[in-house]
């Protein structure tokens, strides 16, 4: 999607009806409530650590409420499919990614996208034998690719809002927000009846102190040299996206580069929707898509995941490097910016 300049697009348009005085009053009442809880619990003989834990949980609940409200204001579509919570009820990362569970999701998903074959072309979709769909769900790169697009499509934009906007737009201290664990284990999948992803629950949990120390030691160079937003993006890529892609790649025949192509396309598009200052937008594009490795020495998996063309170039929407294979599925079509179509046009122009 083309860059929309400095104005806030429809997806992320901020509400003009902000009420700072009410917000300040709410935060004051919340602080009083926390102090009251602390006093009462201490009087009941609870240990300081138990009191601190209770206060932390109340603080996380407040962060969840604030973020959900903020997401609803900035990106209402994604607020319908992504919620921050302290009590998730969906499928955890290690549950939905069990081979049997994942294959059942793909089998349900395959019913809407049966295989292209003469043996099934005359059979109504609802009557295609399960063994045919089962083979399709095991072997079709296109089916797994499209499922992955649903997965990352409902995850990436809300997380970019969390990483880029939450630290300075929520009332909670920056330290508390940055200590919230963003590993895949804290994201619970809500499956749709069709087998695709319907949404996510982001379980707000503070990172254990030992784990925090390890993370800080691992990115000490990045912490020193990289601005906070970029540091948070790198941490998210390394601690969440990399293990997620590894897990999906292990479950499907779809190659790793195709998942990173999905991610590169999504991240580039939504950063353009966030109305960031142009200088920051360009810096983030360079960091994420034109840099082979991060400052901690780790390889950047988003490097060359898209065609990062200058704004003045023709066909600036054709940034995909890898076809998503959607056209191979029944009831689907070729994307308008499919790289295969772009290459075909270039070939015809060369032969003319």
Task: Set down the secondary structure blueprint.
Blueprint: H1 20-43, H2 48-74, H3 76-79, E1 82-85, H4 93-96, H5 99-110, H6 118-121, H7 130-139, H8 141-153, H9 156-169, H10 174-178, E2 187-191, E3 197-203, H11 209-218, H12 220-225, H13 228-251, H14 256-273, H15 278-289, H16 339-351
Parallel strand pairs: 1-3
Antiparallel strand pairs: 2-3
Describe the structure.
- With about 350 residues, this protein is mainly α.
- It has one domain.
- The chain is built from 16 helices and 3 strands.
- Strands 1-3-2 form a 3-stranded mixed β-sheet.
- Strand 2 and strand 3 form a beta hairpin.
- The longest helix is centred in the N-terminal third of the chain and has 27 residues.
- It is globular.
Secondary-structure element string: HHHEHHHHHHHEEHHHHHH
Share in β-strands = under 5%
Strand order, largest beta sheet: 1-3-2
The total beta strand count reads: 3
Taken from the alpha-carbon principal axes, the silhouette is globular
Biggest sheet, in brief?
3 strands, mixed
Coarse structural class:
mainly alpha
Helix content: 55-70%
The radius of gyration over CA amounts to: 23 Å
Total count of helical runs of at least 4 residues: 16
Overall number of domains: 1
Question: Uncertain spans, ≥5 residues at pLDDT below 50?
Answer: 1-44, 48-53, 210-224
- Give average pLDDT, whole number: 78
End-to-end distance: 30 Å
């Amino acid at each position: 999607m083309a860059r929309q300049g400095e104005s806030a697009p429809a997806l992320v348009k901020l509400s003009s009806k902000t009420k700072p005085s009410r917000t300040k009053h709410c935060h004051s009442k919340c602080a009083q409530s926390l102090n009251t809880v602390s006093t009462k619990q201490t009087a009941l003989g609870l240990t300081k650590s138990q009191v601190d834990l209770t206060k932390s949980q109340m603080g996380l609940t407040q962060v969840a409420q604030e973020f959900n409200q903020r997401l609803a204001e900035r990106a209402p579509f994604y607020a319908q499919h992504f919620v921050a919570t302290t009590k998730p009820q969906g499928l955890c990362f290690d549950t939905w990614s069990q081979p049997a569970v994942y294959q059942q999701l793909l089998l349900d998903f395959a019913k809407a996208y049966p295989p292209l074959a003469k043996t099934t072309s005359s059979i109504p979709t609802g009557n295609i034998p399960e063994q045919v769909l089962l083979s399709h769900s095991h072997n079709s790169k296109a089916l797994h690719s499209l499922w992955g697009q649903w997965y990352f499509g409902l995850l990436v934009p809300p997380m970019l809002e969390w990483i880029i906007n939450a630290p300075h737009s929520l009332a909670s201290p920056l330290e508390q927000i940055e200590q919230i664990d963003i590993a895949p284990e804290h994201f619970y999948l809500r499956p749709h009846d069709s087998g695709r992803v319907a949404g996510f629950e982001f379980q707000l949990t503070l990172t254990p102190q030992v784990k925090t120390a390890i993370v800080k030691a691992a990115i000490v160079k990045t912490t020193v040299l990289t601005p906070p937003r970029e540091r948070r993006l790198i941490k998210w890529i390394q601690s969440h996206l990399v293990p997620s892609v590894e897990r999906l790649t292990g479950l499907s025949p779809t190659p790793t580069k195709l998942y990173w192509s999905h991610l590169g396309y999504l991240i580039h598009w939504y950063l353009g929707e966030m109305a960031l200052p142009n200088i920051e937008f360009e810096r983030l594009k360079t960091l994420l898509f034109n840099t082979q490795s991060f400052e901690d020495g780790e390889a950047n998996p988003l490097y060359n995941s898209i065609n990062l063309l200058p704004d003045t170039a023709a066909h600036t929407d054709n940034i995909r490097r890898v076809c998503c294979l959607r056209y191979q599925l029944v009831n689907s079509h070729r994307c308008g910016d499919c790289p295969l179509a772009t290459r075909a046009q270039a070939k015809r122009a060369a032969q003319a």
